[in-house]
Every structure is written in C-alpha cells, then in structure tokens.
What does this fold into?
Amino acid sequence: MSEALVLDVHARFLEFATPYLDEPGDGFAYRLKIEHTQQVMALAADISAASGVSGRVRLAACIAAVLHDVGRFPQYKQYRTFRDAESANHAALSIRHSLRENMLKSVPRDIRRLVLGAVYLHNVRTLPAGALGPEALAVAHILRDSDKLDIYKVMIAHFSQETPAHPEVALHLRPHPTAYSQSVLDGLTRGETGDYRNIVWVNDFKIMVLGWFYDLNFRRSCQLLQERGYLDTIFDTLPADPPLLDLRQRIKGHLARRLQDA
Ligand SMILES: [Fe+2]
It folds into this structure.
C-alpha cells in the first residue's frame, strides 16, 4: 500500500519535473535535481528500514524525499541559481508547487502533514526540535540525512572535474587549490552548522559540507558515509595544512565513535 503511494507521488513529480528538461540550455541543472530526488528517495527508504521507525514515518519520509526539491525547478528557471539567499527559499517553493500541482492528492491527511513539515524544514540550519512531535522529528531527520548524503556524492562528482562544466553545482564559488576562509573552519570547530552566506571559496563549501557530518542523526547514515568513503574523498581534495589535518583527525575519530555506538 505504502509503496504504491510513494510511486504515485513520484509519477506526479516526474510529470512536473520532466518538461523542465526542454527549457533553454542543456538541461543539466534539472537532470541533476531529478537524479538527486531519486537518490534521496532510495536513501530515505534505506535509513528508515535500518533504523526501526514506524511504517507511517517511513512512508512520510519517502514521500518527503520525492517532494523536497520540487522548488528547485521553478527556482532555477526563474533565477538561474540554486542559492536561496539570492533567489527564493526553495523549500517554501517545494511546498507551494507540490500543493498547486496536487502531488499529494492520494496521500492521507495525517501523512501529508508530516511530509510538508519535513519538506519545509529540510534546508533550515537547525531544526526547531522542541517544537516538533516525535514522528515529525523522525521524518525531518531521515530527510535531512538522506539529502546530505546525496549532496556529498554530487559535490564529489563535481569537485573531481578539472574544469567543472557546471559551476552552478558549487554555487558559482571561486575555485582555488589552497584558499579557504579561516572563519568557515573556525565556525565548524565551534560546532556551528555552516552558513551558505559566509562561503567564498569552493574549499569553504567543502569544509561546510564536511561539517554536516556532525548533524547526521542516524547510525545508518554514518555507516553509509563510511562505506562510500565520502569524508576521505573530500579531505583528499583540500589542502593538507595542519588545521585541516587536525580537522580530518577529529571528524574521523567522531565517525569511528558513532559507528561503535550500538
Ligand atoms: Fe533542497
């Protein structure tokens, strides 16, 4: 039953997203977001299954995964950027367009509420955890972990290109082999979640993405991160200076401890 509901919403999502591929340009940005959505769906199902959450939470998380970036399509079409600060909050756009296109038509009202809450909160820096019920919190956590895990992959694919063909993936930041902002590293060291508004260099983005690791909520998410080697791959592309080597050691130590926790 629940699988069919997810597929129904996914079919509606594709109906909405596919025409964007015919927009002027090579369609790369839209294709990237369609693929990202499908990867996030698979990750949400994986993390839900491995984490023993209820069927309702699993269903809501998978549907939220389908809809979380619906707003990216109209955002890119109108503004040609994925930077929310320079365009619009894409999570709010996702809600607006999902509702306008009736994508949740077949989804029961109680699940719908969980889905919309998680979509709305998927890109906030810090979740208002105290304001959410346990189910809403679990759905938001699954979506945020799944989203982050796939962004790691997208970023790595992007950074591995000598001359990235699509600089919008790294938000048009300035590439430089060794430059990064001390303030971004300091923020991470203080345990703060990075802020897109403060990043200047491509390396700042990589450092911010590394910091997301501290925000992962499930052991399974840490396991996936480890299995896929994302942290090492990103660190290998950063300058090997003492502050970053120290950060690497701390993050790897933290990951090892989280994987040991039962
Ligand atoms: Fe998003």
About this structure: The mean pLDDT is 92. Residues 134-159 form the longest helix (26 residues). The two ends are 32 Å apart (CA to CA).
